[in-house]
Amino acid sequence: MSTAATTSPGPARDHVFHRNLLKKYPLAVRAAGVYIFDGDGNAYLDASSGAVAANLGHGVQEIVDAMAAQASQVAFAHTLRFETPVLAQTARRIAHLSPDGLETVYFASGGSEANEAAMKLARQFHLDSGRPGKHLVIGRWQSYHGNTLGALSAGGDVGRRTSFSPMLAPYPHVSAPQNESLQPVCPHDGGPDEQFDYIAEFEQVIARVGAENISAFICEAIVGSQQGAVVPPTKYLGQVRELCDRFDIVLIVDEVMTGFGRTGKNFAVEHFGVTPDIITFGKGVTGGYAPLSGMIVHDRIVDIIRERSDGVFRHGYTYSGHPVCLAAGNAALTYYTDNAVLENVVTQGRHLRGLLDDLQSRQPRMGPVRGRGLLLGFDLLDVPGRRHITSEAFNEMAMQNGAIFYPGKGRIDGIRGQHLLIAPPLTIQRVDIELMVDILEKTLTDVDVEVSSQIINERNAQ
Ligand code: PMP
């Protein structure tokens, strides 16, 4: 270690491993509202809310003050031995926002941990209900529920799984409804067509694996990161609910990305009129100001745990219910309500959708726009005669133009399904929506300019 290393920031990749070690990223030095500024004074419009967490934008003083006040009062107390007022306050606010019947909250730190907790709770629930064999979780292909080995086993992103195989648990997977613009591809059978009966496939998997072995089914109501804002057919979730009821399967709906207003409802599941047994949340609960996540649990599970296990969910760890994180959550949830954030999502989401639909009609590289509220996306299509561009490369070009989107690749081959998720802070205003779409349009044009100049340069070099 040199003195220089301790005094100057230097590139983080010299000593940390979080990012692609070969790449140089801009140094974020300041952020305000929907903008992040780098060390050279460049502004980036945050069109992805920093991994869809910074729902309230950057620099919200009320949240910063609440965290500071909590840190100076009781920064940390053993969650299993003390209560803090902010624990009850935050849980009450969350229960108030949740669908009826989901009244009890368990706090964790990140989305992956929340889903791990939910899968464990489902097992304990079955055990306490006298169904000890139920342990498998059915997940869906092309889904993401976190990076811990359990959550990765339930998730169906083959790309993220390959370096870590075999998975911890041999969880079965079913197909997830796709957007209409692409042929669905599933790794197990080469792909159903657009008429594919997702529910029949689900039933077949239950029959094959045995309902007596299945503990839970996990899915997102509207798929965020893995498929880029894919909304399922209207009846799909209701039919899933019926199957879960019929076979005593706990329905876990992962709202880590969609929770707290992102899609124009408090929870995305509300679009479909379905009540899950467990909702998991993360990211937006603090607007990204602190690591807080958790699950909201239906009374039908809580009642059994109260009756058979004295109310004890046999799970817990050091930072579950950390008071400073809860203070951030409590202040963020207050901010959502006091500033009518949900209403803003509906208004600005509609405006954004209109602008994107219009852009799409003029841009052959854009597939049909999909999503709800301020969780919108489209596929980056290949255009005959023009070069293929990955969403990651597209996003880097967009950053040069002053906006950062959320790139994704939904299909297993890493080529088809390149998509862009557009998910700005839920507090974004009209003027920034319009600038964001202008930057998108410029980038879509730049792609072809750059690609054609690249082709010319390559030809000249030959
Ligand atoms: N579930 C979903 C739907 C997510 O989008 C994410 C994060 N992208 C996670 C779970 C995992 O959350 P975390 O990264 O906080 O562990």
TrEMBL record:
UniProt xrefs under SUPFAM superfamilies: PLP-dependent transferases
Protein name: Aspartate aminotransferase family protein
Pfam families in alphabetical order: Aminotran_3 (PF00202)
The family this protein is said to belong to: Belongs to the class-III pyridoxal-phosphate-dependent aminotransferase family.
Keyword Transferase: yes
UniProt KW Protein biosynthesis keyword: no
Keyword line: Aminotransferase, Pyridoxal phosphate, Transferase
Co-factor(s): pyridoxal 5'-phosphate
Entry superkingdom: Bacteria
